[in-house]
Amino acid sequence: MRSNRPPCPSAASLDRAAAHTFVPPPEQGWSPLCNAAILFEDMGELLPDGRAESPLPSTGQRACAAA
User: Of 27, 41, 42, 46, which sits 20 to 30 A from 18 (CA to CA)?
Assistant: First the structure.
């Protein structure tokens, strides 16, 4: 079976925002991403190494596709 989904960017890469959620978004306001980062409703991130990334200023929609 062939997957049409592109490979998941690593959490350390500059294009980590292209990561997709691997489970439907839960009600708690966060979503686990395919690269082991956690995306919060406000678009902030918790990276696998424990670093927190602040939400970027709003410039459009984030490219995340639900599983």
Answer: 27
